[in-house]
Structures are given as C-alpha cells and as structure tokens.
Amino acid sequence: MKLTNDKKILTVGLGLIGGSYAETLTKKGFAVTAIDSRREAIDYALKKGIIADGADVPDRDLIKNADIIVFALYPHIFLDWVKNYGSLIAAGTVATDVTGVKCSVVYEVQRMLPDGVEFIASHPMAGREVYGVENSTPSIFEGANFVVTPTDKNTEDAISLCEDLGKTLGFARVSRLSPEMHDDMIGFLSQLTHCIAVALMTSCDAPDTELYTGDSFRDLTRIARINEDMWTELFMLNKEPLMRHIDLFTAELTKLRNALAENDCETMKQMMRVSTARRARFDKPKNN
Fold this sequence. Notes:
Strand content: 5-15%
Order of helices and strands: EHEHEHEHEHEEEHEHHHHH
Number of helices: 11
Radius of gyration: 21 Å
Structural class: alpha/beta
Number of strands: 9
Largest sheet: 6 strands, parallel
C-alpha cells in the first residue's frame, strides 16, 4: 500500500518529532492535523502553517476523520491515551508511533485498539537536544534510519504503508525488525550511548572544563543534554537489554584499562583496529 496525498494524517503529540512529521508532511501536500495538550503548541503550529487544524483535547472529529494516526507521546501517556480514547478511532484507520521502546508498548496497544484499527509500530532514529514543535524541522530526518517493527497481527499492506511513510519523510534507510530485536538493538545503539554520555559528564567535577575541551569531547557528549523524564522512562521499560549492553561495554572498557596497566600495546591497537573498521559502516549515506 502506498502513502498518497489524499490520506488525512493526525499527529497525536506535537513535540519535536511529532512537529517535524507534521511540518514535513504538510510541505509534501498532505492534510495534517494535530492533538496536543499544550494549547501553545497547537497555536504555534497553526500560525506557522505546520498543521491545517488542531485541538488541545482529544477531538472526536479529528480522530474519526483521520486515515493515519501518528502517536508521538511518551510510552506511558501513549498507553493511557489508547486506553481512554482508542475507541474513538474509526475502523480502517492505520496507526503508528515514534516510541523508543517496543515490547512494553506494541502488544498492549494492539490488544486495546478496536477491531478494524491496525497499529503498525515504527521508530524514527532521529532527534536533537531541543524540544517542542517550535524546533521542528524536516532536516532532522535527512540521512537517518527508520525502523518498522511489525508483529504477526500486522498486514503486509499496513507494513508497506508505514515503510512508505518513512521514505516520504526523507529517511535514508527503512528497515524491519521484530519488537524484541528492536529493543535489543536500541539498548545498544541509543540507550547505552546516552548512558555513556551521562556517566562521562558526571565522572569529573573539575571546574571550567569547557574552557579546555576539544571537538572529540563535545561530539561524544552531545547527547548528555538529556530529557531526564523521557530517558529514565525509556531506560526502565528496556531494563534487561540495556543492563546487558552496559555489562558488555564495561567488560570492554575494563579490557582496555587492563591493557593500559599492563603496557599491552598490541591489545589496545587491536581494539582500535576493530573499532575503526566497525565505525566506518556507520557513516550516514547521502540522499540521492
């Protein structure tokens, strides 16, 4: 199934990612509406032409008229929303999300939604260190990855529609993972990196370090400016995979420390060779 301009799209949650979805899709000719509890977010998006209509409450007409609903909410708010208002979604609607964890969300949402409403989960691997629709931009998706996480309850039509959404938004690569594989991968690729950045920033309280730093430290700690509410929730919902990857990282860091203590230059060089080769695969491709 292809994503065509006649599809009416509702974004529930108009923060950075929800706002960037809305702005990108509006610029591509889609009729986009939004629901967000912040009236100022709705007013800003209307003023800037990011959305065609919006409400700061779960508006029945906006919900039932949507062909596609994108949920851009914290996991616990997402689950509460579906529990309280999911019955308002019309049969034939396809819903998706931007949630950073899947196993603790996907199966419960699919269970709660009414018959005829299909939820196909996805995760835009994009973000910035700022928040809110006021900072939304289509450029956030350029060169980034988009992961679709189907279950056995999903149809191929809905999966294809969600993949087409990722391509329409401008993501460089669109792939499929099971919710379980997604959560394991995200524990390593995203959550562990945030843990490392936080721990690095809290490991030294020497004054005025910002006066002496270079680009390497700035690059490594960019994500240490962190939304503590969102990331604590994501860490807790993916606790077991994240702890496993923390343990694996700790073992490698200890290996490097021991090699340094023992003047074992060959072990250090070998780790650096592996690191260099693996890192080369992560460079973002340029869009054609």
